[in-house]
Amino acid sequence: MTNHSSCFAAQSVTSTSVSQTPFVQWLISRSVISSIGAIVTFGLFVFMAQLIKTDHIYVDSPSNAPQFDIGFVAKPEPKVTKKSYIEPQPLPVKVDRIAPPAVDTSGADALITNVPAPVIENNPEVFGQTKANSDAIPVVQVEPQYPVIAARDGKEGYVVVMFDISAAGGVLNAKVIEAEPKRTFNRAALQAISNWKYKPKLIDGKAVAQTGLQVRLDFALDN
């Protein structure tokens, strides 16, 4: 009876040991996998920590870096050489008078265009003119000033001016009707003629205005 019980107990222990073997294997495999996972995780953590770690990174001190001194060189200002300029002196201008076009006097009522008469001293009658009837006579004729630029450039030319003479003997309505070269001497000619003075035209001893007079001013340089 005792032997039979012992055999039964041995069989029970053997059966229990055999049934626990798969569980132990599963537990061991889980432990191994967990250990490997922990090791990998720890390794990744250490690797990431090394990537972001900067305590031991050596950076050269700015004092050891090469120094560059960048200097700015001022651009020299250009020198301007002033040339001495001598203003040309006013040059004499030749003044020629141009008589207006002839007018047909065949008709009984035809008018004769008045032109400046030459000045002849001690002769009150000139071509039928008397003290009571006379054309305008020049009293003051200011010579034009030669334009500085034209004189410097060696330009010559002429200007034809038409103007009127008032009853007081002053010049009115002066205008250029011809010039060569154009506009070079116009201003000088007009300024001069505007200062001219005349003894006005007389009709029956009374001063009257005279219109349509022309004069040519030649501008020439002395050679």
From TrEMBL:
Organism the protein comes from: Shewanella maritima
Record lineage: Bacteria, Pseudomonadati, Pseudomonadota, Gammaproteobacteria, Alteromonadales
UniProt domain TonB C-terminal: residue ranges: 131-223
Transmembrane segments: 32-52
Record GO biological process: protein transport; siderophore transport; transmembrane transport
Gene3D superfamilies reported in the protein's UniProt record: 3.30.1150.10
Transmembrane listed as a keyword: yes
Name of the protein in its database record: Protein TonB
GO cellular component, one term: outer membrane-bounded periplasmic space
Family: Belongs to the TonB family.
